[in-house]
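dumping this here so i dont lose it
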């Protein structure tokens, strides 16, 4: 059974930091590109960051470059999103996504991140 379980969300002040985790099971984690998306009410889910499986090449949305870092631990089958210098506009539900192909991909249930003073 495939599982992706996000954790680490919460309320943080502007300028603060959070680390999101996505613990996975049920698929060959090291072969999958892992991505973080985020979504606010009434909008589409936007890609925030991605990291490939074997080579661990990373990519980021322009809005988070220099502030967010994606990483993965293939032994623990977990992907992380380190978020620094958080802004109110980073407020969203953050989703973990595992991608092998358009026909083989999985989503987590999401974790809420709220940036507010």
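and the seq i came up w/
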């Amino acid at each position: 059974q495939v599982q992706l379980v996000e954790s680490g969300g919460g309320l943080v002040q502007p300028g603060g930091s959070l680390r999101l985790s996505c613990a996975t099971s049920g698929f060959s984690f090291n072969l999958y590109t892992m991505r973080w998306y985020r979504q606010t009410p009434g909008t589409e889910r936007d890609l925030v960051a991605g990291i490939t499986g074997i080579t661990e090449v990373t990519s980021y949305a322009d809005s988070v470059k220099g502030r967010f870092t994606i990483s993965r631990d293939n032994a623990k089958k977990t992907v992380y999103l380190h978020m620094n210098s958080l802004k109110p506009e980073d407020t969203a539900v953050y989703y973990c996504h595992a991608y092998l192909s358009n026909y083989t991909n999985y989503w987590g249930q999401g974790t809420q991140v709220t940036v507010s003073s």
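DSSP finds no helices and eleven strands in the chain.
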